[in-house]
Amino acid sequence: MSRLGDLILLERTRQKLTRKQVARKCGVSEGYLKDVEEGRRIIQDDQARRILKTLGTSQRNEAEFSLDEIAATVDLTTLAPQTPKPAPQPVEKPKPEPVKQTAEEQSGIWLDALSSVLKPVPVMNAGWIQVARRMVPIQDGKIEGAKPDKVVYFLAPDDSMRAMRIEKGDLVLVVPQNLPIDGAIMLVEYGAHRCLRRIKLLGNSNILLQSGDRELGAESVHISDIKIVGKAVRVEFNL
């Protein structure tokens, strides 16, 4: 608003006059007076003096305002073209640095990727403690026809099976089997320890456990005295 518009509005409000009443007395439209009060219309000197005189403020106005100020009823700042504020530029968030993976994590990723074709199989010693792992191919979701998580390697603890071409330190792949198979080399629990023996069925629930370093040896036991752990299907050895 302008200084003159402020003065007219203030005095009209103080005298409790409506804009319509003042406009009628001054011979102007209500819209015209509204524009003057709100600083949106340029008004001539005589018109400004007539409105002020109607409100009874002409004496005070002439003492306080110059003619230029009375004529300047428009607040120039409201008419000046507004320079649009530049739109805020989006702040680019710094791209997160790629997380470096440890060798152990990378190894785990490879294992996950190969889990459908390879399976890590534990290597167990005679005390049934895992000492290593070996990757074994999976065919149709199985290893040697058995579930992958049931297969183990048994680390031969001595040369007691050398006559069957299994020497100390060889790795014997064992699949689960709890019934004795005639002629098969099987992993058995006997005498509080685990060992490999070739099985010979004798009848009457008796079994012959065959072993031998250079010459074959055998021991007859009852089926209830031993526990069949699994069947040996493959032997691996280091050159």
Tally of domains: 2
CATH-assigned fold name of the largest domain: Umud Fragment, subunit A
Neighbour order of strands in the largest sheet: 2-1-3-4-9-5-6-7-8
Unreliable parts: 59-65, 69-82
- What is the tally of beta strands? 9
Name the CATH homologous superfamily of the largest domain: Umud Fragment, subunit A
**Alpha-carbon distance between the two ends:** 102 Å
Report helical residue fraction. Answer: 25-40%
Q: Give the quaternary arrangement of the chains.
A: single chain
- Which sequence of SSEs, written as H and E, runs from N to C? HHHHHHHHEEEEEEEEE
Please summarize the sheet with the most strands: 9 strands, mixed
Summarize the structure.
By secondary structure, the chain is α+β, with helices and mostly antiparallel strands.
Give the arrangement of secondary structure elements.
Layout: H1 3-14, H2 19-26, H3 30-37, H4 45-54, H5 58-64, H6 67-71, H7 76-79, H8 103-113, E1 118-124, E2 130-137, E3 152-155, E4 171-176, E5 185-190, E6 193-203, E7 206-212, E8 216-222, E9 227-236
